[in-house]
């Protein structure tokens, strides 16, 4: 067993069970399995099923559909981190002759490559992959529907191309590379391209009649070339471990910085997405729900639904799997499981600790600064970073990383990548801060600082 249910309060466990029971019952799912992760491990597992006396546990495999894309994205980021490609490279540089090579690797990861959402008929999810043996069969005669890089348009063929890219640069099948580079290091022994048969348990896929409580078996096809977009089977136990990796990284696979990059918005949002608070990173869906920033991915294939939802700030993740073509809205269920735990048992912050040592030249920068008449404050944090933001209210704010030469580089927001440079007087004291040409002074429009445009020599005045 990989669950530690005693770590959640009884009332929390009951609320979680109630939520998945409602999802299974109202959604008319033959079975539904779920897990919750907190503190780097699974702390709860629950399941509901229409079969009396038997319920799926965390080792039962379900097909996870497009959550497969996140695994493929991890493989691509590994190639980037090894220096074998740059995310800004056009696909043509590494995989020539596809007809979609002007799209960059980053654009394919973020579904902004302009490609069609699906491959040409027949419906690829319900037909053998052998019908599409070549990339040209997946892309069709007109692979591009939109200008490259201009809009977010979800594309299954795009991730087929990324899988082919992995195979080209690794010289091995996508499935083999995934197993060796991701599944084995993370201990995801129950994640595979095919269900582990015949002795290991896996769920069968079903369609539920929309107007009657009747079932129809769904075919389970090998997707062939399309596998990197949706082939995988997994369990709530394995996806719980994968959620831990996506939140914290694992240097055997990807660093914390690289998985943070995956969680960063990388696609222009459609107007409807802006209203919904949704966007896309590099192989990860991003949404704002109940005041929380959630990352993860949903998946579906005939007979199966899947969802992985992570709130990094709350240190809570949820996995929900079901074996039906449609019915329960698992993205809402996953978000609710995260919310239940985060609200009932909020994360306890680490104890505050002072800096191990204080650099006087950095400490001198702490305190209030003024950009024109706007009051800002610079703070020195225990993690070695400095932050600059409005003294009160909303506005531009960012953290900055030291470059080791007395300057600092912005890490986020408006000032991401911008240089923060303290400008010193001949006696070594700080005159002002230069941030991307903005001058921050200790007093509003300080006469002693080189304020662009100068300062009226008559100074501040009233109207009399």
Textual characterization of the structure:
The chain has about 475 residues and is of the alpha+beta class. The protein has helices at about 10-25, 65-80, 90-95, 105-110, 135-140, 155-170, 175-185, 225-230, 235-250, 255-260, 270-275, 330-345, 360-365; strands spanning about 30-40, 40-50, 60-65, 205-210, 215, 235, 280, 285-290, 290-300, 305-310, 315-320, 365-370, 375-380, 385-390, 400, 410, 420-425, 430-435, 440. The longest helix is centred in the first third of the chain and has 17 residues, at about 10-25. The protein is globular and about 85 Å long.
Layout of strands and helices, then pairs:
Elements: H1 10-26, E1 31-38, E2 41-49, E3 62-63, H2 67-81, H3 91-94, H4 105-109, H5 135-139, H6 156-170, H7 174-186, E4 206-208, E5 215-217, H8 227-230, E6 233-234, H9 236-248, H10 256-262, H11 271-276, E7 278-280, E8 285-289, E9 292-301, E10 304-311, E11 316-322, H12 330-344, H13 360-363, E12 367-371, E13 374-380, E14 386-390, E15 398-402, E16 408-410, E17 419-424, E18 430-435, E19 438-440
Helix pairs in contact: 1-12, 2-6, 2-7
